[in-house]
């Protein structure tokens, strides 16, 4: 079996969640790596959409910013910001939203705004960007981030984007067009919302990871599925495509000083 | 009809202390040269609007030009935080900065409303987010369906500043690639400045290609490389290495101030700025 890192496992597991032929609104960073890996492996007909207005983009290297030239040059079409949010996202045309986060809670609500108090923040984060609209309007939402107690918190410092709100049918009662988060993919495993309570439950463990370590990396008392699966290890192909992509990306971003 | 002016004169005549100013651009075509000129001319108490304040807003804020920021995502894309923005919000340095924070969809709707000279924009937004309790948004009922919708006040900047690829000698502007909310931001503003890579005799524009005809533009200034270290599609690529280096420059107040003094205050224009940083950033 090939050697791999926890980050590689996370990106590969996240990529596998994206089915071929879907339209996907992609956040920058980890989601962008996963979505492009999916496109370069099992999901060649996936339509990747970035909030800079690039629709159906096929970048050969990962973008550093959400509006890199690589994205517009390889896109089927490029539209204005007004259009991308109004006609495409709020118009209900996107199957999957792929997001990252600084903090997440047990109902998959996410924070990318502040750590600490909003008016006197300990750490001011970049803010919402397109995330609240992506979380609200896409058919479903995938979230990927590294799992630790600072990120997987009992209570968010700020709810930037709505997941399953307070669990149960609380999201369904609000005016959300989309059904919300369906999976959270981390460097340790995969969490999915319980069908009834909507509480995130550990349903798949990455190879070599223990349940105890995932529980210890979660501030709330993590629910564990009775029939816990093991995530299949990365294949040679997945790893080589991911590494090639990252190598091309590093070269491209370094060579412009 | 647009006037063709040197950038320093356009900033002097169009941007005043206390103005509401939008320097728009979504990663692409960021008006860096114009931002530097605002810093050189020491404008103060500006309300800055921008969907994605990045490095040029970090510089304007750190240089003390702004007292308020209206935005929806403030970071160094792909790199991390804007340290000068954070210092202003967290520690009031160099001056306190009031923030009015939105989501992108709300900012886009506010620009579209501004361009339409409507009082507010309407969208299916601000749902499930605590932002609604901290910003200017109200909820209204659709008079036809009863659906609950968000209303955001229109952006009507005193002046909008953008960078584009080309203009002709009358000042009609062409831009392409990621065009963000620049068209709406110009149409929403009372005054506007467009810096361009080049002014040409004939745009040879196919239908739909002229984004802003001359008669809706205030001033056009030819500034080659005016979006550096951002990019201008068809002219030069984004200098991702500079964005990465900015993190180290902006982290510390003294390093930042020395950088601004040397490379912005100590230079007269984009050409001199580029030469001065080549020595340091090569």
Which descriptors apply to this entry?
heterodimer; A: alpha/beta; Glutaconate Coenzyme A-transferase; two-stranded antiparallel sheet; B: about 280 residues; 2 domains; about 30% helix; globular
Description:
The complex is a heterodimer of chains A (257) and B (282). Chain A has 257 residues and is an alpha/beta fold. Chain A has one domain (6-248): Glutaconate Coenzyme A-transferase (3-Layer(aba) Sandwich), CATH 3.40.1080.10. Chain A has seven helices and 14 strands. In chain A, the strands form three sheets. Chain A has a ten-stranded mixed sheet, sandwiched between helices. In chain A, strands 6-7 form a two-stranded antiparallel ribbon. A two-stranded antiparallel sheet of chain A has the order 8-9. In chain A, a hairpin with a 5-residue loop joins β6 (103-104) and β7. The longest helix of chain A is centred in the last third of the chain and has 19 residues, at 236-254. The N and C termini of chain A lie far apart (39 Å). The model of chain A has no long low-confidence stretch (mean pLDDT 95). Chain B is an alpha/beta fold and 282 residues long. Chain B folds into two domains: 3-97 and 157-274, Glutaconate Coenzyme A-transferase (3-Layer(aba) Sandwich), CATH 3.40.1080.10; 104-153, no CATH class. Chain B is built from nine helices and 13 strands. In chain B, strands 1, 2, 3, 4, 5, 9, 10, 11, 12 and 13 form a ten-stranded mixed sheet that branches. In chain B, β7 and β8 form a beta hairpin. Chain B is globular. The mean pLDDT of chain B is 96. At the A-B interface, α3, α4, β9, α5 and α7 of A face α4, α5 and α7 of B.
